[in-house]
Amino acid sequence: MKSTTAATCTYGDGGLIEVNPRVWSDLSDITREILLFHELGHCILYKDHDDSQLGIMNKILLPGYIGKSRAEYLEDFFYH
């Protein structure tokens, strides 16, 4: 894993999420949550990156829930 990569998902048998401890230690709790949802999106829901709107599956990790509530982000994540 690159030193600047926050986390990766390896597909297969439920998927494996690997988190970079150096990056993790610098993230806020909210950003950590978004990161884990993002990787679960790849590993479990087979979602690709989507930069068409602000969301959990953006290529660039969001620093927090911007412009919408956490509930709205999760609704978009799970139902769209």
Question: How would you sum up this structure, described in words?
Answer:
This protein has 80 residues and is α+β, with helices and mostly antiparallel strands. The protein has one domain (7-79). Helix content is 36%, strand content 10%. It is built from 3 helices and 2 strands; from the N terminus they run E-E-H-H-H. Strands 1-2 form a two-stranded antiparallel sheet. A hairpin with a 5-residue loop joins strand 1 (7-10) and strand 2 (16-19). The longest helix is centred in the middle third of the chain and has 15 residues, at 29-43. It is globular. The model has no long low-confidence stretch (mean pLDDT 92).
Essential attributes:
80 residues; alpha+beta; 36% helix; 10% strand
Integer count of domains: 1
Tally of strands:
2
Query: From N to C, what is the helix and strand string?
Result: EEHHH
Classify the helix fraction into a percent range.
25-40%
Kindly name the structural category. alpha+beta
Strand content: 5-15%
Mean pLDDT: 92
